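task queued by scheduler; priority normal; single chain, no ligands, no partner chains; default sampling; output format set to C-alpha cells
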Amino acid sequence: MKEGYIKKSERKNILFLADDCRIPSGIGTMTREIIIGNAHRFNFFQVGAAIKHPEAGQIFDLSADVNNQVGIDDSCVFVYPFDGYGNPDIVRGLLDKHNIDAIIHFTDPRYWQWLYGMSAELRQRVPIIYYHIWDDLPAPHYNKPFYESCDLLMGISKQSNNIAKMVLGKGNYVDLDGIITKADVSDHRSKVCYIPHGVNTSLFFPVPYSDTEVMRGELFGKDHAKDVNFVVFHNNRNIRRKMTSDLILSFKLMYDALKKENVLEAEKIRLVLHTDALDENGTDLPSVIKNVCPEIEHLVVITNRKVSPQDLNIFYNIADVVPNIASNEGWGLSSTEAMIVGKPIVNNVTGGLQDQCRFVDNATGKWLDFNDDFGSNHSGKHRAHGKWVYPVFPSTISIQGSPVTPYIFDDRCDVRDVAKAIMYWYSTDAERRKECGLAGREWAMSEEAGFTSAWMCQRIGDVMTLLMENWKPIPRFKLYDVEVEIKKTKNKPTGISL
C-alpha cells in the first residue's frame, strides 16, 4: 500500500479551484500532479476552470484513472468543469454536497477576488489555502487583503514566499519553514511556507539518442535530421511576457556570428518553438520571422501540436539548451522540465527563474534567500550559480502597471546577451554540456531543491494536514485598533535593492 495511505472514508475532502487538471497548461499540469500525488491522502473535488469551457456544467469522475496511476483502489477525484474561475454559488453548493474540509486555490489572485470576498463566511467553516504565485517586485501591497483572506500561503518560489511575508508584515504571519508550535498553527494569522513546483520524474528523464530519431525526422525532415547538431528549444505560450520574438532575434544574432566563421556549421542549428504561431495575447510569429529575421526562416520550426508528456519528454531530449527569457515569471516550468531531463538552461534573472539558477549568497556561500531589503537578484548582486545554467541579467528594469495591479517590474534582458548565452552552450563541448545538464538534474532532484512532483506533493500534503489538524474557525466579528492599523501602513518594505 502507498506510504501515507488513508482510507477513503477517513480522508479529508478538499475543494480545489484552479485550471482544469485535464488541461495541459502550466497551472493545469501542476494541479494534476498535486491531485494525483495526494489522492491516497485526500478526496478531491475540483472546479476545473477554463475560458469558454466546452464541458461546463458536466461532472467527471476521474477516480478509476487515478487509481491506475496511484496504485490504490479507492481514490475519489471529481472534476466540475466551469466556464471561468468559479463563483460563490458553486462553492457553497459543493461545500454542502461533499462536506468539504478545506479549499485550495491556485494561480493569479486577480481571478479569486470573489473568493476572498467570501473569506469571512467561508473561514467560519473551512480554511482557505493558496498555492501562491507572484511574478516580481516591488512588493504588491495591493494584494494584502487577498493574502489576509487565506489561512495558508504556499509560495511556489523563494521570491513569492518572501513577497507574501513583506506584504503581510512582521508579526502578521507564521513561517512554517521555521520552528513552530501548535499554538502558532492554530492562531488566525496567515501561515506561509516555500513549496516549489515539481516535475514528474517518471515522465521526464534522459533517453538515448536512438529514442529521439523519429521525432527529429518529423521536426527537421528525414533527409536533414542527422545534419542538425545544435537545437534551441522554447516551450512557452506565445504571450508578450514570454518574449518569444526576442528569442527569435537572439537566435538570428547567434546565426550571424556563426555564419561569419563557418557557413556550413551555421546551417546545422535549429530553433524549435513549441507554441501557437499566432496568439492575440502575443504576436504573429511567422510574420516576425519572415520580415525581421528572414535569414533564419528555414532554421526555425514552430509546432503547436498537443503532445503527450512522453512526446514532450522527447522534445526536451532533442534540445541542447532550453532558454526562458520571460520578463515576468512566477516559476518557469519549462526550465524545470529541462533540468529534470538533464539539459542546460538559459534563464532571465527574474521571479521564480532565479530559484533554478541556484545563486549563492556572497556572504554565506549558501543558496540565496530574500528579505525585506533584498527581494530579487535581478540587479546581479550575487553572481555565483549552478553550472547547468547561463543566467542573463536584465538590461532594463521598468515599472509597468494597470488599475488593478498598479505596479510591477518588467525585467527585460538584452537580445545580445541572450545570443551570447546560447552561444556559450553551443561553444561548450558536447560532453561538457551533458555533464552540466546532469548536474542540474541531480540538484533539482535533491532534497535541497525538491523540484520533483514527489517532493512537491509530499510537502503540500504535510502542511495541509498540519493546518487542518490545528485549524480553528475565525470568529464572526473582528475588532481593529484604528491607530495601530494606520501605523502599519507606514514604511512598507518593497524588497528593492538598488
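post-processing summary
- The chain is about 35% helix and 15% strand.
- The chain has a mean pLDDT of 95.
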